[in-house]
Structure formats: structure tokens, C-alpha cells
Design a protein that fits this description.
Blueprint lengths: L1 H12 L1 H27 L5 H22 L5
Amino acid sequence: MLNAALFAAARFGGVFAAMLLYLPLEIAVFVCEGTFYHARFGDRRRPYLYALTANAASFAVGVLLARKLPGWF
């Protein structure tokens, strides 16, 4: 959903609009994921740390792919 929202923002509002929306939308995704993991696993697995780590890893892989395959992004 994040990618779809950013694509729509870039398509209809330009790249700058997508850049402005990226951080607030990423924070919203982090909070939603952390809340879901907390509801599912409780505090015993540090749900927000897991959500942060998963999002950081996803971002890093996305940056690497964007550098290797710029035509896809």
C-alpha cells in the first residue's frame, strides 16, 4: 500500500510530492506493523523493534535494487 500511495503521489503530484509523503507514510506503516505484532505476540518479542528492523532491511534492499536496476524504479 505504501508503494501504491507513493506511485499515485508521484503520478498525480510529481516526484516532490512523493518525497514529501514518504516519511509520514513510512512512519504510519511502522506504527501499524508494530501494533499488529504487539497484538499478535505481546511484549515478549519486542514488536516495535522487529517492525523497525524489518522496515530498515526492506529499505536497504530497495536502495540496493534501485542502484542496480534503475530502470525498474
